[in-house]
Write a structure and sequence with these properties.
heterodimer, A: alpha/beta, Pectate Lyase C-like, 2 domains, 6-stranded mixed beta sheet, 5-stranded mixed beta sheet, 16 strands, about 20% helix, B: alpha/beta, Rossmann fold, 8-stranded mixed beta sheet, 8 strands, globular
Chain lengths: ~220, ~270
């Protein structure tokens, strides 16, 4: 069972996992099953760029429905959706066999880090409920935020907000930590002005309501709070 | 020919960095190499590609009439005076902005691909509707930027948008480079820019006062065989687009000739 009808005006649709299947056909098939109202689409692990998503929207609109929300477990899809101004949520599965989203599996997913690979450019942003791990640079003007820690395997030159839900033990670490602005929980700080030492990964954390930067300490990072 | 046509978007995000100048000069340089090239002004609001090419007074029909089917495409295309291989498709009037859709842009470009090997699209500044229309019709892109923080930031934003729209490849042209200012560390260096943008560098264009002269005259620099630095840079970019391997100029070595040394001496305050 892949389709759930919780309210009369909202329809949850899931795209199939199969990589060799055609999502256009699958989407049309699913749309033919529902009667009216808005659509919340779970794109699963499909990689969609803006062009694909525009096609998704036009297919949904041609069938007479409105796209309300995109869910996906692929950050690329989420970033494209936000670029088009569609409300997008990250969706992470609890186990192999679960095909549907439910509240419990979402809570479980908070402890799982979100992984994203690639350069985050000016104007782009990525959000995670739990920890966020980025393989690539965060350019000036880009924004990353996470409910937990943020780790950047690359340069952090944009804005980073760790512990956005108020978690004061959250940390921000990067191979090169030179952000425009750092935020941890409710505290805000400007990034350091001077050039950092080459080859020295740094981390920022909250010490007596102040954001402090120091070289990364492996022990402290993996210590459970 | 249609499938081999290269549809290149020339964009920057920020205004005034040299998109239109690059489009005009690249168009002329490619046409001189014997390839059929058309330049398309996608800046419907503030068009001035026709001015730079000196074709303003020859425009009878525009892209708007072609789309409305009140004229044929070949009637709207303006052939360049000296370079028969180069044509311009002028933008419609600014009121056209309201109804032009990405589909319309694609229709125009598809028509052009039947006759030309290169379609250069001069993109408007900004990332709003005009930009989206232009992107919808393009296959690859050239980003123009200056060695300035604000231009680089805007370019970065545009590259992100191009990536999500599946435009490939995206190459970089660094415009208005002043070797002396880079040497004095008063300007972002080439490395500073490519480091942030992480794109292959298609070429550098040196700052050159001749550009302003040629713009006002409506004769792109590449048209005549003059030896101005910028003209040389534009021609090299066109040849690299065609697949030739030409080494990039090194700004730190630029101006190491005797004449330049003398000029620099004149500029430095030693007395």
């Amino acid at each position: 069972m892949e389709k759930h009808k919780t309210q009369t005006d909202k329809n949850f649709l899931n795209l199939p996992y199969l990589k060799n299947s055609d999502w256009r056909e699958a989407l049309k098939l699913k749309l033919s099953d529902i009667k009216s109202g808005g659509v919340e689409l779970n794109c699963k692990d499909w990689y969609f760029n803006c062009r694909d998503l525009k096609e998704v929207i036009s297919i949904i609109q041609r069938s007479g429905f409105k796209l309300l929300l995109i869910e996906s477990n692929i950050p690329t899809t989420i970033v494209s959706a936000s670029a088009l101004g569609i409300k997008a949520d990250l969706y992470i599965e609890a186990g192999e066999n679960t095909q549907t989203t439910n509240i419990n599996s979402k809570l479980d997913s908070l402890s799982k880090p979100l992984f994203h690979q690639g350069i985050l450019r000016s104007g782009e942003n990525i959000e995670a409920d739990g920890d966020l791990f980025l393989h690539g640079d965060v350019n000036p003007g880009a924004k990353v935020s996470a409910g937990g820690n943020i780790m950047v395997w690359g340069r952090l030159l944009g804005i980073a907000h760790a512990g956005k839900g108020g978690e004061e033990n959250a940390k921000i670490a990067a191979l090169q930590l030179r952000p425009l602005q750092l935020r941890i929980a409710n505290q805000v700080a400007r990034g350091p002005q001077e050039e950092p030492e080459a080859g020295l990964a740094e981390e920022a954390f909250l010490d007596r309501q102040q954001i402090v930067i120091r070289p990364v300490q492996i022990k402290s990072f993996y210590k459970t709070n | 020919m249609a499938s081999n046509t290269r549809i290149i978007l020339i964009c920057s995000g920020k205004g005034g960095v040299g998109k239109t100048t690059l489009t005009a000069n690249l168009g002329v340089a490619l046409a001189k190499q014997g390839v059929r090239t058309v330049v398309l002004d996608a800046d419907f609001g503030l068009r001035n590609l026709d001015l730079l090419l000196g074709l303003e007074n020859r425009i009878v029909y525009t892209a708007q009439e072609v789309l409305e089917e009140t004229c044929r495409l070949d009637q709207a295309l303006v052939k360049h005076k000296q370079e028969p291989n180069l044509a311009l498709l002028p933008a419609g009037n600014p009121r056209m902005l309201d109804w032009l859709k990405p589909d319309d842009m694609q229709r125009i470009v598809t028509m052009l691909t039947k006759e030309f090997s290169y379609v250069l699209i001069d993109c408007p500044a900004g990332v709003e509707d005009g930009f989206k229309n232009a992107v919808a019709a393009s296959k690859e892109a050239i980003i123009v930027t200056n060695p300035e923080v604000s231009a680089v930031r805007d370019a970065d934003r545009v590259i992100g948008l191009l990536n999500t729209n599946g435009i490939k490849p995206v190459q970089l042209v660094l415009n208005r480079v002043r070797p002396q200012m880079i040497a004095n560390q008063e300007m972002l260096s080439v490395d500073d820019v490519t480091d942030i943008l992480a794109l292959p560098l298609l070429g550098l264009v040196l700052e050159d006062q001749q550009v302003i002269v040629s713009t006002n005259r409506g004769e792109p620099l590449t048209l005549s065989d003059n030896n101005s630095p910028a003209s040389h840079c534009y021609s090299n970019i066109a040849r690299r687009l065609q697949g030739e391997q030409i080494p990039l100029i090194d700004p730190s070595k630029e101006g190491s000739g005797l004449r330049n040394k003398f000029m620099r001496l004149m500029q430095t305050k030693i007395f």
